[in-house]
Amino acid sequence: MSIAGPEAPGAPVGGAAEGRVIAVASGKGGVGKTWFAITLAHALARAGRRALLVDADFGLANADVQLGLAPRLDLGAVLAGRATAEAAVLAHPAGFRLLPGRSGSGALASLGGAALEAVLALPRQLARGHDAVVLDVGAGIGEAQRRLVAEADLALVLATGEPTSLTDAYAVLKLLAQDAPGRAPRLVVNLAESAAAGHRTHATLAQAMARFLSRDLALAGVVRRDPKVPEAIRAQMPLLTRHPASPAAEDVTAIARGL
Ligand SMILES: Nc1ncnc2c1ncn2[C@@H]1O[C@H](COP(=O)(O)OP(=O)(O)OP(=O)(O)O)[C@@H](O)[C@H]1O
Ligand SMILES: [Mg+2]
Predict the structure, then answer these.
(1) Torsions phi, psi of 58, nearest 5?
(2) Which of 121, 206, 159, 117 minimizes the C-alpha distance to 30?
(3) Lowest mean pLDDT among 29-33, 108-112, 189-193, 228-232
(4) More confident residue, 254 or 10
(5) How far is the CA of 200 from the centre of ligand 1 (A)?
(6) For residue 252, how far is the Cα from the chain centroid?
(7) Mutate to test the pocket of ligand 1, among 26, 34, 160, 237 (most ligand atoms within 8 A of CB)
(8) Helices 113-127 and 143-151: crossing angle, nearest 10°?
(9) CA-to-CA distance for 22 and 84, rounded, in angstroms?
């Protein structure tokens, strides 16, 4: 797939106003963060917003793979001083933009010191010229993940109904309450067997938050389990392009509308 130039849809069109940084995190791996972050950026772009997806899953970045892109530049090149972040951003034909995180060398796997600070400064820098910067925050609760979430304007914490996902989402929410007590994260329940089941998952987590942390947990939305999601990923196409009327596409579009 070709890498479009700055005239492509979704490109910044001037104006220094700073957009919103939205971190997508889960603690647990494999619950759909990358797919959701891509689809959210796409839904925001379809709503006319200048949306940028940053693949902040250092070391295991794969948003480019889900999208069938072979980027020439990525975060690794930016950190190595071979490119500016703006130059590494590419425009997807669907209307959103992507800063790929892939580093063939694996050099991003264990970021620390100055490199970590440089990466953490990027979302805010890129928010100038975009309406929304969506971060695909990798699994885990290391310093990089924790700070990406705490420093974002909005944290969307993804969980499924499985107990292991719930405990990991709770751990992320608890750390965020410590790191950034003023923030009000929102929950996204993914892979829900039904909307009602998703609401029950939210109720379970919200009760734990209220009881042990004395905090509310708002629901951003429920995304239903949908066989069209793995099908679109296998085809390396965005769900909203391939199956715009599928249940999961509808659910993410509704979440984007509510942000
Ligand atoms: N709503 C959904 N319905 C059906 N399948 C889904 C849904 N959401 C995600 N999946 C599937 O879950 C799998 C994991 O998705 P994805 O790679 O986006 O997760 P992740 O949280 O980013 O994983 P990792 O922690 O490894 O980065 C994919 O194969 C995808 O097809
Ligand atoms: Mg991922």
Answers:
(1) -60, 135
(2) 159
(3) 108-112
(4) 254
(5) 21
(6) 12
(7) 34
(8) 20
(9) 22
Smallest-distance ligand from the CA of 36: 1
Ligand 1, atom nearest to 224 Cα: 1
Say how many Å lie between the CA of residue 35 and the centre of ligand 1.
6
Write the DSSP assignment of 134-145 as a string of letters.
EEEEPSS-SHHH
pTM: 0.93
> Which strands, in side-by-side order, build the sheet including 20-25?
90-91, 97-99, 51-56, 132-137, 20-25, 154-159, 186-192, 218-224
Please state, in angstroms and rounded to a whole number, the distance separating the CA atoms of residues 57 and 245. 29
Sequence letter at residue 60: L
pLDDT (tens digit, 9 = 90+) per residue, 170-211? 999 999 999 999 999 999 999 999 999 999 999 999 999 999
Q: Is 18 helix (H, G, I), strand (E, B) or coil?
A: strand
Taking only the tens place, the pLDDT of each residue in 161-171 is 999 999 999 99
Atom number in ligand 1 closest to CA 29: 25
Q: Where do the structural domains in the chain lie, given as residue ranges?
A: 20-258
Residue 101 Cα to ligand 2 middle (Å) = 11
H/E element holding 97? strand 97-99
The verdict on domain 20-258 having CATH code 3.40.50.300 is: yes
Residue whose CA is closest, atom 31 of ligand 1?
230
